[in-house]
Specification:
The chain contains 9 helices and 10 strands. By secondary structure, it is of the alpha/beta class.
Length: about 250
């Protein structure tokens, strides 16, 4: 049997003595678009920080294809090299052009020369529909385009995993739908496993293969499954969330 791409076991997330989430157990399979969802303040982004190596869990395991990330320092760097991240808002350097933003990880983690890096940056921008925008600055493009550029930078090192933190936040419905289409295209064309933190319902239903729902009150995971199935058969609080009904 093939190992899950990501296997989370009995995980507790906390900041010092402040508990965020506990007893989290779930798996992310190959080429899956996996959603971490829940209301504001439930710990979605904190869980993502654990998965991307920025916050050590208080308890439990995070395994990437069977390798325990937090217990295997030797393998950590290799795992991190296989992860591409788009932070909230795109997190682009405003003083750099789009191409220069994408060049940052290539300059840091490869021995490619300047010409090769420019060619890769141009190609990555073309993958997200931004051909011809290499020399634009983030302030010169729309919010949706900045999100696409952030995804292009996440793709710079040809990762096996891509983590997207609130990719559709702040976008109008049309831009959000186009971004959802891009995410599906990238998964299908590049065979990536994509994990997304979001509370945007339209995007959740448009792209998710699987999802978990984190509850801020009980500080644990209340449900896992395809959002359409959870809408019909999930816990009442999850159904209300997915119907955008007041609790």
């Amino acid at each position: 049997m093939q190992l899950p791409m990501i296997d989370v076991k009995n995980l507790t997330v906390a900041y010092g003595t402040k508990l965020i989430q506990e007893n989290l157990t779930f798996s992310v399979n190959e080429k899956e678009i996996f959603i971490i969802m829940g209301g504001s303040g439930c710990g979605k982004s904190s869980l993502l920080r654990v998965l991307m190596g920025l916050l050590e869990p208080s308890k439990g395991q995070v395994l990437f294809q069977g390798v325990d990330f937090w217990k295997n320092e030797k393998a950590q760097q290799d795992i991190l090299r296989s992860i591409g991240v788009m932070f909230q808002g795109g997190a682009l350097w405003t003083s750099r052009t789009l191409a220069e933003n994408i060049a940052i990880p290539l300059e840091q983690f490869t021995t490619l020369n300047t010409k090769q890096i420019k060619e890769i940056a141009r190609y990555k921008l073309s993958q997200v529909g931004l051909s011809g925008f290499e020399n634009y600055y983030p302030s010169e493009i729309s919010g949706g385009m900045r999100k696409r550029a952030g995804i292009a930078r996440a793709l710079a090192l040809d990762p096996r995993f891509v983590f997207l933190d609130e990719p559709s936040a702040g976008l109008d419905p049309v831009s959000s739908a186009r971004l959802d289409e891009l995410i599906l295209q990238l998964r299908d064309s590049l065979d990536m496993t994509i994990l997304i933190v979001t509370h945007e319902l339209a995007s959740i239903f448009a792209v998710a293969d699987n999802a978990i729902w984190l509850d801020a009150k009980t500080k644990t995971m209340l449900a896992q499954g395809n959002p359409k199935e959870l809408l019909a058969h999930g816990p009442l609080v999850v159904q209300k969330f997915l119907k955008r009904e007041a609790d």
